[in-house]
Amino acid sequence: MRDRWRTAALLLAVVVAAAALWGRGQMQQRRTLENELLARYQQAFFDAVSHVESVEVLLSKGLAASTPERLADVFSDVRLRALAAQASFSSLPLPAGTLAETSKFLVQVGDFAFSLAKKAAKGAPPSQEEIDLAHRLRQEAARIGAALHEMQLEAAKGRAPWGALPVGMRARARAAGDAGGAARFRAIEEQVQKIPVIQYDGPFSDHVLSRKPRGLSGDDIDEARAEAIALEFLPEERRQGYRAEARRRVEGKIRAYGITASPREGDGPEVVLDVSVTGGHVVWMLTKRDVAASRISLEEAVERARRFLEERGFGEMEPTYAGAAENVAVIPFVRIQDGVRIYPDQVKVSVALDDGEVVGFEALGYLMAHTERRLPSPAIRGEEAARRVAAGLEVDGAVRLALIPAPAGDEVLTWEVPARMGDARFLVYINALTGEEENILRLVETGEGAMTL
């Protein structure tokens, strides 16, 4: 009997030692992953600061340039740097909306610079009003850059604005955020809010964004109706056993009720939605849960998203591309009318790649732009449009009609021509009525899918 107890004790000691070693290994692995994740966030922040500082430098170069060729080059670079800064900021684990004003400022700077680049490419210099605006934007970019540079010095000392971040917690960090870091970012936001309204003929200018949404229809609704609409909009697996409560009011371009849907009993993720006061349209939806693994393909995620939109009455919609990040697929869809892609009428659907649940939806662009349109007949054929792309580009795919946004809120019917230059891919938009090149986008393949610049 004594030998039996001695053997049992020895086995128990071995098991405890093995468990301790396993636990220590798991902790070391976790710390390694945490350090890698924090290093990646720090690099993204440093990149964002560098891009903002480059925007300021390039704007000053643009003000000093005299030839159309140099102006076109510099202002094209301004746009790319502004978009790159915005992309770097978006990859940081910050609460939703933390840098909303800064993001809008960067979009406006990029679009303004792009309008000057196109103007310079046609041989036209900027007007005195545009020069004055460029001076003002350069000054504001310098102020933002200086504030970010101070934060960069803190981050270099190990005091990152988002604080410690366990692996797999990025989604919750966006929702909760680090109090000190969020306060510092809010200070920058308050500074950006003091920038006078930017008025220029660009699609992202304030006077365009402040226009009345065209996609809202119907009478105003009360909170009880908004709560019912929110429940009806949820994925089917969330409707049963959930209750919806209006907890806030949203003011802005689209007045809305802020709805929170949560389980009546037991555990389950909250779902937050904004439902418009006018007409009861869902503006956006987000399910607050982590997605730990990818088990379904992007193709299946696209089909899940397509069915989700069909069931909610969006009619014929077509995905433009699909990308994935942190086990969630993000799929933009555009409306199809008479075979034409209507790019202003865009929604985005996010699908969890573990089980295919739709965990995100955003329709701000759709609700701002959607209306019944009478599309003109093209004056040139698709084959002619394909022949009008630059000589260095090779047409690489089917040419199709697309309605795209244009400066001052207008819309232009174009031929969308996919093209390639070596390994670089582009989308060239040729005006279907005049044959002029309206826009050109660069398709960049990333680990998270394709993005346009």
How would you sum up this structure, described in words?
By secondary structure, this protein is an alpha+beta fold. The chain has 3 domains: 22-209, no CATH class; 223-369, no CATH class; 382-452, Nuclear Transport Factor 2, Chain: A. It contains 12 helices and 15 strands. The protein has a 15-stranded mixed beta sheet that branches. A hairpin with a 5-residue loop joins strand 1 (242-250) and strand 2 (256-263). Helix 2 (68-90) packs antiparallel against helix 3 (100-121). The longest helix has 63 residues, at 2-64. The chain starts with a helix and ends with a strand. 32% of the residues are buried.
Order of helices and strands: HHHHHHHHHEEEEHEEEEEHHEEEEEE
Average pLDDT over all residues: 79
Main sheet summary: 15 strands, mixed
Give the end-to-end Cα distance, rounded to a whole number of Å. Answer: 77 Å
Number of strands: 15
Query: Given the helix and strand composition, which structural class is it?
Result: alpha+beta
Query: What's the tally of helices?
Result: 12
Low-confidence stretches: 163-180, 446-453
